Amino acid sequence: MTTANAYPVTQTIRTIGILGGGQLGMMLAEAAMPLGYQCVFLEDNADCPASLYGRVFHSEQLEAFIAAADVFTLEFENTPTATVKQLTDLSKAGDKHGMFPPLIALDIAQDRLKEKQMFNALDIATVPFREVSSEAELQQACHELGLPIVLKTSRGGYDGKGQFVIKQDSNIKTAWQDLKDAVSGKGSLTPTPAPLIAEGFINFSREVSIIAVRGQNGQVRCYDLVENHHHHGILAKTQAPAVGTSHLFQQATNAITTIMNHLGYVGVMALELFVTKDERGNDVLLANEIAPRVHNSGHWSIEGAITSQFENHIRAIVDLPLGDTDNVHPAIMINVLGQYPDISAVLNIDGAHYHSYHKGERDDRKIAHITLMPNDVADLDPALAKLVAVLPNKVGLDKKSSPVDNKSAAVDAPTNTETKAEKTLDTDVLAEDRQTDSAVNATVNKAKK
């Protein structure tokens, strides 16, 4: 079948190239189709979720992938910067229409130290932290921050790997021995030499996130703040909007707008935040991490917002006007992990919307999500209870006390469920799924040739 005559003469972008073919790529392609755009994917797993919506190119077909697309984006922030630079250079030369997000955004997002330093340089508050490149500097950091602290690699690491909780002085030497190889680029966590980062503990009431989109003309539109709950370091539930956060919305929008403008960003970005108290007892936000892509905590927007995060990302990268980000109805999004539920039982719940990722079942693997949007807001909690009852993996939501209700924790400590930012950054492509993203890793060598 040919679509050669299906485009307006003035439409110069016809095909979007997406680095990665997981569920995020799939949902981006779903959003692109009604707007008249096709998608192709660089992904080594030929049966990836995105394969339902376009051609999948293997990493050895990088040049063919490039030739097949007019503009480029990604679904995974750990995409090698060498690949992104190659696509950026093609765009600068006028051979393509752009690579979004920009290279600098990935460079920052892939380095926890650079990320925290950027936040502070932009007057965006974070947990206290110190750069650590020696055991002596670690000793000093422990003294200045006070124990306990979390010591982490600034690059690499996931699912609790690459971090160590130092609770007492006797842990310092062990922690240094455990993570020191990352400073010189040795070991398995990261091939790139980089300092460690020591972060202090904070008291916080909950974790929220904000998603925004920035167009090529610099316009920024923000979605509501949402509240996130986690199970074993994986996002389990997102409530949109986050109840009782209207007084924090302006602070969140100012922060993400400042970041996006600073980076010259184009596309959708998520900013993860902790709600804590200042010295006067007022609620304030601490920035945790950015995700330079569409994000799991924004999946509710497919039904719950006037324009979904996926459609707005497509609009931004092809330079169309951005869509309204208003919430049309309060919603709860639940991740389906490991095992599929009975779809009939799910859809028997009023207001339930089911999204399968067409993946095989595997423990703690994200294989679908469900958005609850009953007509009456008062029915949200009853609908959630009905849904939890039919989920094979109840992701901790069957417990009377949520696993994220611990009010005092180390940011990203591997023993706490609030730690998803460093354990997975809720990457939507879990660590075990990263084998399906080997295409973007394999392109590093090609990009250097």
From TrEMBL:
Start-end of Polar residues biased regions: 437-449
PROSITE patterns listed in its UniProt record: ATP_GRASP (PS50975)
Entry keyword annotation includes Ligase: yes
GO molecular function per UniProt: 5-(carboxyamino)imidazole ribonucleotide synthase activity
Annotated segments matching region Disordered: 398-449
Record keywords, A-Z: ATP-binding, Ligase, Nucleotide-binding, Purine biosynthesis
NCBIfam families: PRK06019.1-5, purK
Complex formation: Homodimer.
Protein name: N5-carboxyaminoimidazole ribonucleotide synthase
Origin species: Psychrobacter namhaensis
Organism ancestry: Bacteria, Pseudomonadati, Pseudomonadota, Gammaproteobacteria, Moraxellales
